[in-house]
Amino acid sequence: MVMESGVDAGRNPRERYRAQVRDEVKRHAWEQIAANGVTALSLNAIAKEMGMTGPALYRYFAGRDELITALIRDAYRSLADTVRAAHEAGTTAVALAAVIREWALSDPQRYLLIYGTPVPGYHAPDDITAISDEILAVLLEVCGTAEETPQSPFDVFLGMDRRWAGKLLASSPTVHRALSFWTRLQGVLSLELSGHLTPMGFDPGLLLAEEVADL
Amino acid sequence: MVMESGVDAGRNPRERYRAQVRDEVKRHAWEQIAANGVTALSLNAIAKEMGMTGPALYRYFAGRDELITALIRDAYRSLADTVRAAHEAGTTAVALAAVIREWALSDPQRYLLIYGTPVPGYHAPDDITAISDEILAVLLEVCGTAEETPQSPFDVFLGMDRRWAGKLLASSPTVHRALSFWTRLQGVLSLELSGHLTPMGFDPGLLLAEEVADL
């Protein structure tokens, strides 16, 4: 879990206490999500567990959506740190996929909060996408290649419409490879975490390794 | 929606009435799922909306899990029928992927109930897998190929451990191709339906077509 109370530099006791309470609220929230699903998240129930009144808790999180946003931000932060650390250690695409799978399996609720069924009525704020852009930037470096000629109709399309990838200066074949990498990784993980691969009896890691090996 | 009251052959008025009430309960359940998520599903709330008492409703569904199972069974039935109809019309793998995507987009909640975040505490009964085996059988036919020599370590593994695919008599390369097809399809659909492709501004159908074209 990403701890708000973990970094104390330049904070006074009141701010540290606030961070500790927010961390504790988030710990209870993850337990509720595992037990009943994210849509059943209740700030009043968390307040009760913590021996606080509802209104007192609302001083730490203004509402359900702010709490969900904090959880999603922590989850993305943890994923982005994991991905960047692997990249700095000189990972290949196949090894990176295995690292991300391990990250997802170590805490499925955290993965599912980002990539699972959307929470009805919840909309993530724009700054969340800044963290996902960090992840994308690493993917584009890992999937970069010498061969820069657009090969397929989708490559050509990606070259024309650079709304999202433009600022990252990657070539269309690289963007296409990064998208394929991400698609296949998400395919294995979503099937594995929703239990659809269990009856098949093989190691999903083998499937994943081959899916991302020949991009 | 798959209607229990749609097939009346050999049923008496009491059975028809029962099927109609069950259909109405399921309609309310889908509305609740869209509004609040599947974990917030409440038989008592549905009973209230239908002007019934809770105990009266429980004569039609013995509990939340039985209702969820009925919804999952309907969703699988609809997907299996869609897949089989495409196969009988002589579909290619690329066209089949597009048909399944259309099915998912036409009713995202139905897709997400099968492939999205698992419902905490819910376990599907074994007979549900019989319907998913129907879908697998079509995939294996569509992904069948003349080239039957195991190519990769995963192919060889699939050839040795035939716990799940054994009865379907497909070769390991065909099973591997069907798994890749399904993985990539699920990857695109889960990213698309959880909103992760929206900011990228391209047509996910283009990505999907290329992902399943070169299996």
If you had to describe this structure to a student in words, what would you say it looks like?
2 copies of one chain form a homodimer. Chain A has 215 residues and is mainly alpha-helical. Chain A has 2 domains: 1-62, Arc Repressor Mutant, subunit A; 73-213, Tetracycline Repressor, domain 2 (Orthogonal Bundle). Chain A is built from 10 helices and no strands. Chain A has helices at residues 13-36, 43-49, 54-57, 64-88, 93-106, 108-115, 128-142, 153-160, 172-193, 204-213. In chain A, α5 (93-106) packs parallel to α9, α5 (93-106) packs antiparallel against α10 and α8 (153-160) crosses α9. Chain A is elongated and about 60 Å long. The two termini of chain A are 33 Å apart. Chains A and B meet through α1, α6, α8, α9 and α10 of A and α1, α6, α8, α9 and α10 of B.
Write out the CATH superfamily name of the largest domain in chain A. Answer: Tetracycline Repressor, domain 2
Largest sheet entry of chain A: none
Number of domains of chain A: 2
What is the CA-based Rg of chain A, rounded? 20 Å
- Given helix and strand content, the structural type of chain A is mainly alpha
Tally the beta strands of chain A: 0
**CATH level 3 topology of the largest domain in chain A:** Tetracycline Repressor, domain 2
CATH class of the largest domain in chain A: Mainly Alpha
Instruction: Give the proportion of residues in helices of chain A.
Output: 55-70%
Overall outline of chain A: elongated
Number of helices of chain A: 10
User: Which residue ranges of chain A are poorly predicted, with pLDDT under 50 across at least 5 consecutive positions?
Assistant: none
Largest interface, with Cβ-Cβ < 8 Å? A-B, 52 and 52 residues
From the N-terminal CA to the C-terminal CA of chain A, the straight-line distance is 33 Å
Q: Please tell me the overall pLDDT of chain A.
A: 88
CATH architecture of the largest domain in chain A: Orthogonal Bundle
Organism (chains A, B): Lentzea cavernae
Protein name (chains A, B): TetR family transcriptional regulator
InterPro entries (chains A, B): Homeodomain-like_sf, HTH-type_TetR-like_transc_reg, HTH_TetR, MT1864/Rv1816-like_C, Tet_transcr_reg_TetR-rel_C_sf
DNA-binding region (chains A, B): 42-61
